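[step 3/7] inverse_fold.run input=structure_tokens len=306
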């Protein structure tokens, strides 16, 4: 059958309007299909973010198509297995810690009666360090930061308090930044512990600690700088590994438990933030801690290209 229309008819307003409406309807339908199809992926990504910050986060809802439900159920089973694994290791460490407290207490009692005083003091210091290592390791394994209630707090006030307390005992710690107004949602004790760990590293191995605070978009940027030797590039990331005992890690941790920076990273992650180390051009090391401001959403993954 021959085509009887004229090419000019294709350019008539009525035809163009009908074609435009058809194209718009098609685009809206396709957009709806894409949204529905990608919703399970978004839910999976959100559940993974929650799991990364807290093993006790709510499970992923099992809804939608059969494949989406199967994915959600598999993710929830994985979360349960991870929770059971961590709980088992925590119980094991708690049992070891409990069993070691009795001989440590006996050793402390005997050490207090030792002579000469110099040897007594040295042994008591070693015992105190062992007890601190046990307490730190147990707190790290339990993930105490996830258990502490969150509230709005002023990061500027917290940094000022940390610097003032260190200055009172004649440590070279200073703070430059706003006096107040840096509101974040967090666990006060956990954040203070993370800052104390960073300051201690800077003072012991860098000679001083200079604390800074500036806004960074929807986050607050905390810096802790020192004048020490810095670290090789290969160690800037590895020192965050628990019990990492390379030469550079020993230098940074000062013979501590090997968990100081691992705890700082856990605290940062639990607050939706990030932490990294970088060598300063003028010499020394800079620790950078990013925390979401107020009730802002968690920060994205770190930039590994840095």
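[step 3/7] decode complete -> sequence:
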């Amino acid at each position: 059958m021959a085509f009887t229309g004229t090419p000019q008819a294709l350019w008539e307003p009525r035809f163009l309007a009908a074609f435009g409406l058809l194209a718009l309807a098609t685009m809206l339908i396709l957009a709806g299909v894409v949204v529905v199809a990608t919703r399970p992926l978004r839910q999976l990504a959100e559940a993974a973010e929650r799991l990364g910050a807290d093993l006790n986060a709510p499970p992923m809802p099992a809804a939608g198509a059969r494949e989406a439900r199967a994915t959600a159920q598999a993710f929830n089973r994985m979360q349960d297995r991870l929770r059971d694994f961590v709980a088992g290791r925590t119980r094991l460490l708690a049992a070891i810690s409990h069993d070691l407290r009795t001989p440590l207490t006996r050793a402390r009692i005997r050490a207090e009666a030792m002579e000469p005083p110099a040897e007594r003091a040295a042994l008591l210091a070693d015992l105190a360090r062992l007890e601190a290592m046990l307490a730190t390791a147990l707190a790290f394994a339990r993930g105490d930061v996830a258990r502490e209630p969150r509230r709005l707090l002023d990061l500027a006030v917290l940094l000022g308090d940390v610097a003032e307390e260190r200055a009172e005992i004649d440590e070279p710690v200073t703070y430059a930044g706003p006096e107040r107004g840096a509101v974040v949602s967090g666990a006060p004790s956990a954040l203070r512990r993370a800052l104390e760990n960073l300051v201690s590293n800077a003072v012991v191995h860098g000679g001083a600690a200079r604390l800074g605070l500036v806004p960074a978009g929807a986050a607050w940027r905390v810096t802790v700088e020192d004048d020490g030797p810095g670290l090789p590039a290969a160690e800037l990331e590895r020192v965050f590994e628990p019990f990492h005992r390379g030469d550079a890690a020993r230098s940074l941790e000062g013979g501590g438990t090997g968990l100081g920076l691992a705890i700082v990273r856990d605290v940062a992650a639990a607050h939706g933030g990030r932490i990294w180390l970088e060598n300063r051009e003028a010499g020394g090391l800079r620790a950078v801690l990013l925390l979401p401001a107020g009730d802002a959403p968690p920060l994205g993954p770190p930039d590994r290209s840095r």
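[step 4/7] annotate
Residues 147-292 form a domain with the Heat Shock Protein 90 fold (CATH 3.30.565.10).
Residues 7 and 15 are 12 Å apart (CA to CA).
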